[in-house]
Amino acid sequence: MTESNFSLKKIEISVSEAEKRTGRNAMNMQETYTAYLIETRSVEHSDGQSVLTDSLWRRCSAFEWLRNYLLVYYPHIVVPPLPEKRAEFVWHKLSADNMDPDFVERRRIGLENFLLRLASHPILCRDKIFYLFLTQEGNWKETVNETGFQLKADSRLKALNATFRVKNPDKRCIELKHYSDELQSVISHLLRVRARVADRLYGVYKVHGNYGRVFSEWSAIEKEMGDGLQSAGHHMDV
């Protein structure tokens, strides 16, 4: 759904802050989530007056809703990815808690980059649903549902399943599928190895991180070895 009378290339977009909130989900159960403040400001104005900044709050599920819609309506376009929903690696020194301040800040930056990449795309920047995502705070999901993108996504899945039932598939497609499956397996194995190595390395750093303090305290009670222990503690800290 594109419109020719507006373009998000003429609007400055930022995700300026995050806020922890509590509400009810679709199952009427209380949940805690993070909402992000999106601010937009026009960069083109001919009357010389200052331009007011519009702002609204969106939670992460709304960003996912927007991306799913774009994937369905623009299958020929590589839609930018969203940042991860939770911290998965201990060596990032991020808590597994989704409300961890460091993680929330990193996700805020990722969400802002996601919107900026969409706005810089020559086709996506003119999409009406994307524009309403930035400007219409109420009933936005209802507007997306009216596009029927869910039914279109279901029909695409059915068409995809039908392709696997072809009696005489193209040999090139079969070779490409085997290659992609093998590549996925190799990459998954490399990521698992990387995770194990990083976990061990993080454990070593965590253990050695206390040595500097131990040597410094030890140097305070030693007369002959005090200077050497203090120097060793300093090097361990480095």
Q: How do you describe this structure in short?
A:
The radius of gyration is 26 Å and the shape is extended. The chain has helices at residues 60-73, 101-119, 128-135, 140-145, 149-163, 171-208, 211-219, 226-237; strands at residues 11-24, 30-42, 54-59.
Structure write-up:
The chain contains eight helices and three strands; from the N terminus they run βββαααααααα. The protein is an alpha+beta fold and 238 residues long. The chain has a three-stranded antiparallel β-sheet. A hairpin with a 5-residue loop joins strand 1 (11-24) and strand 2. Helix 7 (211-219) packs antiparallel against helix 8. It is extended.
* Class from secondary-structure proportions: alpha+beta
Counted by DSSP, the helix tally is: 8
The portion of residues assigned to helices is 40-55%
| Strand line-up across the major sheet | 1-2-3
What would you call the shape? extended
Span from first to last CA?
56 Å
Integer-rounded radius of gyration: 26 Å
* Proportion of beta-strand residues: 5-15%
DSSP strand tally: 3
Low-confidence stretches: none
Largest sheet: 3 strands, antiparallel
Nearest-integer average pLDDT:
80
Helix-strand pattern, N to C? EEEHHHHHHHH
Pfam families: PX
Protein name: PX domain-containing protein
Organism: Rangifer tarandus platyrhynchus (Svalbard reindeer)
Key structural traits:
single chain; 238 residues; alpha+beta; three-stranded antiparallel beta sheet; 3 strands; 51% helix; PX_dom_sf; PX domain-containing protein; SNX4; PX_dom
